[in-house]
Amino acid sequence: MSSAAWRPPVTLLVFVVVAGAAGCGAESRSSQKTSVPRVGTKYVSKRYRYEIVLRGTFGMVSALAPWDGSFPFGSSGRVDVIVDRHDRKFIVAAKPVSSGMSLSRWEAFVVRVKRQACHGLRHFRASSLGGVPAREFVNSCPGYDVITLAALHGRRGYLLEYLSPPSFGAAAERRVYEAGRRAFAFTQK
Fold it and tell me: Is residue 173 part of a domain?
């Protein structure tokens, strides 16, 4: 068969791939009107009132019921789980707190919850989440190295966790976590 006979199918294949890619990109773009292209995919939680933009291929499983403050197991149906194909996860949950709740008391609550199944809680430090003060620490849970963040916003106590299998390098995982933390925004006050 001559090379000329192959041109129409190859041309058609190129057209299908380009058209498909254009269609996929339109679905994942935000509705923001800006000239700066977005990098990553936006995941939105109506239950916990936040959005986060992540690079890479993640999928989100939204919480089916409100978080009750128990250990934030991803399989509980009470936390949002955003996971990639390498089993790296962002877990987000929130629960109502009293108007007098302080960040230090909320952090102490989160630490108590985490100690139920995790160990090696260390490196406590100040941080931020969505523009509000937060407290961060690292810990080890069965099968994962975890960065945990506790924050207060809009009379809710928030928990954001980044879990990665121990086989990943700590520095690389810190970069993924930091990118997600910086791309986190509250959607209601």
Answer: yes
The answer to whether 99 and 155 have CB atoms below 8 angstroms apart is yes
What distances in angstroms separate CA 66 from CA 94, 95, 160, one per listed residue? 8, 7, 15
Amino acid found at 167: S
Q: Is the pTM of this model over 0.85?
A: no
The per-residue pLDDT for range 127-179, each reduced to its tens digit, is 999 999 999 999 999 999 999 999 999 999 999 999 999 998 887 899 999 99
Cβ atoms of 147 and 140 closer than 8 Å: no
Which amino acid appears at position 113 of this protein? V
Bridge partners (DSSP) listed for residue 185: 51
| CATH number for the domain harbouring residue 78 | 3.40.1000.10
Residues near 127 by beta carbon (within 8 Å), at least 6 away in sequence = 133, 134, 135, 136, 149, 181
Neighbours of 164 (CB within 10 A): 22
Q: Is residue 118 part of a domain?
A: yes
